[in-house]
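Q&A log
Question type: sequence-to-structure
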Amino acid sequence: LTSLENMLFGMGNPLLDISAVVDKDFLDKFGLKPNDQILAEDRHKALFEEIVKRNKVEYHAGGSTQNSVKIAQWMLQKPHKVATFFGCIGKDRFGEILKKKAEEAHVDAHYYEQNEEPTGTCAACITGDNRSLVANLAAANCYKKEKHLDLDSNWELVKKAKVYYIAGFFLTVSPESIVKVARHASDKNKIFCMNLSAPFISQFFKEPLMKVMPYVDILFGNETEAATFAKELGFETDDIAEIAKKTQNLPKENTKRQRVVVFTQGKDDTVATVGMVTMFPVLDIDQNDIVDTNGAGDAFVGGFLSALVQEHALEECIRAGHYAANVIIRRVGCTFPEKPDYH
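Response status: OK
Response body:
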């Protein structure tokens, strides 16, 4: 299966996840909701200094898109380097860790390395079952199209792929890079996938999001992100199936492929536009087996992409996504056992 090498292309914010168990006072001190995803502001500076001093601090290679392509690679196992990943890091210890972790995961990472900013981090502040994520993009925010994506050797890797995946989070960094990749996919009738990623993307980065939307063949999101997106676009419905349908019908550049919209809803059925809107139940899991739902969304996408690069039917892609998410929520962080037990 060497033909699968570099078939999947991902681009996003490579972050080192720093997770620790905190208490309500910690959340209140920094004005955090128990369950949220935000970008760090000046008032969070001290948070990063404090969280590393907690006991039981864990470091994991993260960043939404990078997590997803790693899981796709894990699901496929062989060949190595099915996924190419682009993003920006600093020339520092955290950057070296990310390079090492990508290599261990057999992802073909080509980072743009610069020394203006340190490697980005994401603090996962854990209270019970909840995770409040605060991302300090730093270097991740320094990705430059003309310094990296446009270079011939890198663009060749983009051209090699047939499936593309970029999380919505990258819209805050380099929308012009996303559009260039999305246009390429559309022009060549390849598959471009995107994720709504977090409510703040639809709220504050709606303009770049809607510039890319005509090129999106597959759109992922969860129920909260779907509701926010619908509100921002004035859909006037909070019915998730209806939102999926309306999103599917938004203007599309490449008419050879009808847009597919996939909305996960935690333990509730996944909603997908397979021709018509269809509900797919997730795998049953005992509440006590759930350790960390943080990586579930990224894992779902990773499983989905692993089936998609093999050109499996949509139903099969969703089944693979559900499997991967079910494995990841039993573990801390977006980590996985040595091999999948998936048939």
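Response note: The mean pLDDT is 93.
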